[in-house]
Amino acid sequence: EIVLTQSPDFQSVTPKEKVTITCRASQSIGSSLHWYQQKPDQSPKLLIKYASQSFSGVPSRFSGSGSGTDFTLTINSLEAEDAATYYCHQSSSLPFTFGPGTKVDIK
Amino acid sequence: QVQLQQWGAGLLKPSETLSLTCAVYGGSFSGYYWSWIRQPPGKGLEWIGEINHSGSTNYNPSLKSRVTISVDTSKNQFSLKLSSVTAADTAVYYCARTPIAAAGRSCMDVWGKGTTVTVSS
């Protein structure tokens, strides 16, 4: 099973600040890494697919990069509505797994 | 616009069988894998398993002995059964759509709203 680790676990950020979240895989997964945003009492929403491809309708301030084992989600100029928990997910091999999540709070 | 609508019993006793159904509206049923994912209270996401329109399934080994995912293509629905539940199975259960990629599997691009299942005596 591929294990995904995320850092940091929690980040408190002021609006307009840049946020960087990393996801590391226990073995190479190519670009089969996807990012989701989950707000309280809501289902996860896809932000980035295949490491760097923005999903339809997602604001341009969200971007992703990386390949192999190391990946990054970047939120440029954070807005108040971006307060949420962010999860990475690998679809390279079964069983599919998720990272533990990074909670982003607005100061 | 594709929507996933899910339903099922929300309160179970230990040893009972969890049963949930997810219906697909507004889009094709074939050409995708359809997944179940769960999230215990205050915790992260766990993939349970998936099925395609032909009935081909894959399960998480951690739950495989208790899980059955089935499909009803005539209704564009797929279902989850989890047997012998315990308090550890208390979670929000989500259904989701995964496009079939050229190699392997893709992301989960459409999600249901989730069903809260509580296991308590």
Provide a compact summary of the structure.
The complex is a heterodimer of chains A (107) and B (121). Chain A is mostly beta strands. Chain A contains no helices and eleven strands.
Q: Write down how many β-strands of chain B occur, each being a DSSP E stretch of 2 or more residues.
A: 11
Dominant shape of chain B:
globular
Q: Could you report the average pLDDT of chain A, rounded to the nearest whole number?
A: 97
Relative helix content of chain A: under 10%
Residue share in β-strands of chain A: over 45%
**What is the count of DSSP helices of chain B, taking H or I runs of 4+ residues?**
0
**Record field, number of beta strands of chain A:** 11
Written overview of the protein:
The complex is a heterodimer of chains A (107) and B (121). Chain A contains no helices and 11 strands. With 107 residues, chain A is an all-beta fold. In chain A, strands 2, 4, 5, 6, 9, 10 and 11 form a 7-stranded mixed sheet that branches. A 4-stranded antiparallel sheet of chain A has the order 1-3-8-7, with no helix packed on it. Chain A starts with a strand and ends with a strand. The mean pLDDT of chain A is 97. Chain B has 121 residues and is mainly β. In chain B, strand 4 and strand 5 form a beta hairpin. Chain B is globular, with a radius of gyration of 14 Å. Chain B starts with a strand and ends with a strand.
